[in-house]
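dumping this here before i forget
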Amino acid sequence: MSSNTENIPEPGENGPDAEEVARRIGANAGIERREDGQIDVLKTIGGVRGLAESLLPGMVFLIIFTIGQQLNTALIASVAVALIFTIIRLVRRGNLTQALSGLAGVAICAIFSRATGEAKDYYVPGFYTNLAYGAALIISVLVKWPVMGVIFGFIRSENTSWRAQKLRARQYAWATWIVVAVFAARLAVQVPLYFADNVPALGAARLAMGVPLYAAGLWVAWMISRPTTQLAD
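structure:
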């Protein structure tokens, strides 16, 4: 006669638990460190090429539209720049997901703008993206799994042990709020410009508050969440 315990699943057998999910998020976050243990912001955003890929399509769109007021030309040029970067990544056998995600993002912006015939709608998808990311980060703090703790904790080899320490948990919560502030600032500045139909200012704000602001926020979040003992940093 077999025991009833044979059919009882082991912990995590029916799927990953919170600890495993956190580990996977941390492992795939793409945050890089330098040899001295500090966060490598430039490498994290993909280096100079990554910075160019994130800025040039929007910059080309803004310049061409501002000068010629030709929406279709500006949209085509923007997508073309993103396509060129994608092809370069594929030729150099870069990460396929990363290569296609950048192109997809620019294409979605172009579709929004072309559908309405309004240049300012090129920036609408970004509003939804910032809102979604900001909301997700806020929820992570409220449920006591701040995303910056999950990511930085993995990088610092703390894994999720920081959750048992009130100080570390509080530091990572504040670090997450820093990144939330980045998304909130973007919306606070750019949404009014959108409704004011000020495309040049909106485009300039999007460029300045894109990867550069995110990188700065990430660095501040890293610094304020450093272990006080400095053992892991």
